[in-house]
Amino acid sequence: MLDVKQLSICFSNYSFGLKKQEVCAIRSLDLSVKAGEVVAVVGQSGAGKSLLAHALLGILPRNAQVTGSLSFKGMELTPKEMVRLRGREIALVPQSVAYLNPLLHVGVQISRAAELSGIAAKSSWSSTIKALKRYKLDEEVAKHFPFQLSGGMARRILTATATIGGASLILADEPTNGLDEDTAKETLEHLRQLADCGKAVLLITHDIEAALQVADKVTVFCGGVTVEEAFASDFYGENKLRHPYSQALWAALPTNNFVNDLPEKIHAANNGGCPFSATCCERGDLCGEVLPELREFNGGRVRCQNA
Ligand code: SF4
């Protein structure tokens, strides 16, 4: 459904001396999602994960320069195609419920999304009611303002708004942020159901444990680079993870050894080397200078000199 190869996103700006400079937030991102799959993109905050969703929707700021290859259903995803597919074939479940308009009834907002996705105006209200029912929300909820909803209900409204047009690819950006455990579980189950119904779901999150509840595969993202593509089951198998960063990320969880060998933030390494080289215990001579290729390894893919 979706193939991303060597995606890079750089921003140009001007420093005080009006000197133009370029900062690359994403340097080499690779991933693929098939119909029926949930693929989680995990990594620390600031790794560039949310930029990926914005790049796929064509809503990056104007000073962004994007290179690499993006394809959707086997066709090149050009800026023109992104505009055509946005909300119809590719939909975003945004990070925050603040994306809902606080002054409009939620039913009106879902109905508007239905019309923008191509559903005829005369059927948009009935589609809205069906969408509410699909997410176990009472018809009356359509007449609520966002502030009248619980966190879980607001999440379901966001998902209903994103999926009402029947999009094939759902981008869920930090969908469990700030939710209590039960609501987070319910939100993730909805994403899993979408995949089980044949959609492709890209789940962008910093919460690996939450992602592993529903994901088939995991793309590990570090400092603007894909460092590993693994199966969700690899996180639970002994020595199955291929990259030192994935291993450190996993070991840092309170439910594991709580060994925090990770710096607070890993910046995109613009010097060409491995983004984890400043911290990695397995670092070799070339690691700070050369970014390794993403290679097939033990059934997954990894980007490490030692693999
Ligand atoms: S490329 Fe080098 S620094 Fe990067 S993870 Fe592999 S061994 Fe460590």
From TrEMBL:
It is found in: Cell inner membrane. Its EC number is 7.2.2.11. Residues 4-248 form the ABC transporter domain. Its main location: membrane. It catalyses: Ni(2+)(out) + ATP + H2O = Ni(2+)(in) + ADP + phosphate + H(+). Keywords: ATP-binding, Cell membrane, Ion transport, Membrane, Nucleotide-binding, Translocase, Transport. It is a peripheral membrane protein. It comes from Desulfovibrio gilichinskyi. The keyword Transcription regulation does not apply. The complex is composed of two ATP-binding proteins (NikD and NikE), two transmembrane proteins (NikB and NikC) and a solute-binding protein (NikA). GO terms for cellular component: plasma membrane. It comes from the Bacteria. SUPFAM superfamilies: P-loop containing nucleoside triphosphate hydrolases. Pfam families: ABC_tran. InterPro entries: AAA+_ATPase (IPR003593), ABC_Ni/Peptide_Import (IPR050388), ABC_transporter-like_ATP-bd (IPR003439), P-loop_NTPase (IPR027417). PROSITE patterns: ABC_TRANSPORTER_2. GO terms for molecular function: ABC-type nickel transporter activity; ATP binding; ATP hydrolysis activity. This is Nickel import system ATP-binding protein NikD.
